[in-house]
Write a structure and sequence with these properties.
mainly alpha
């Protein structure tokens, strides 16, 4: 008597994840970065004598999570739609928290914080609009990545009360990159909306 052919059980890669999966190593690293920003705020607004030193350490750790979440996402094949949204969103939220805390402490100019927050809000809103209308998620370009890095450096120097010439140089370098990256983003936005 013949038996029906049985199809082999599907093999599942231990590395592959669904594009809509939320709980991945890289996404958890992104979430940890947001939590570190909250810890940063608590530490910096406390009366600890070494609060600025610990604030600097927290920024360094957060920067490392930003570096490794992308690396691990690619290495573990865990690039997801959630990750594409979560990573830049957490970056913007974390930078905003650090900037506002430094503003409260009188360590950063008001105009710089306003420019930073308005630019990030407009970019994120534009990205979500394109996602909703076109189903396309704009990824960060090189100018955007450099901007985040230089802004983080400027904030880091402010946290450590570095020499004013270093802080001013980092601030103005940040301003130039904020303008360049925003201009490039607007161009991409217009190009995508035109189809």
């Amino acid at each position: 008597m013949t038996t029906p052919l049985q199809s082999p059980a599907p093999t599942i890669s231990t590395n592959a994840v669904g594009a809509d999966r939320f709980l991945t190593v890289s996404n958890l690293l992104s979430i940890s970065r947001a939590l570190l920003a909250v810890v940063f705020a608590v530490v910096m607004l406390s009366d600890f004598p070494t609060s600025r030193l610990w604030g600097g350490v927290i920024i360094v750790v957060a920067a490392l999570t930003d570096k490794f979440d992308g690396v691990l996402a690619r290495k573990l094949n865990q690039i997801t739609e959630w990750g594409k949204i979560l990573d830049p969103l957490v970056d913007k939220v974390a930078v905003a928290i650090v900037a506002v805390v430094l503003l409260v402490l009188g360590s950063v100019p008001v105009w710089f914080v306003v420019a930073l927050l308005v630019r990030d809000l407009m970019i994120f809103s534009g990205g979500m609009y394109i996602k909703a209308k076109k189903g396309i998620l704009l990824q960060s370009n090189e100018a955007g990545k450099w901007t985040v890095g230089i802004v983080a450096l400027a904030l880091f120097l402010m946290v450590l009360d570095a020499q004013m010439i270093l802080v001013d140089t980092a601030i103005w370098a940040s301003v130039v990159l904020l303008i360049v990256s925003f201009t490039l983003y607007v161009k991409r936005f217009v190009d995508v909306m035109k189809g």
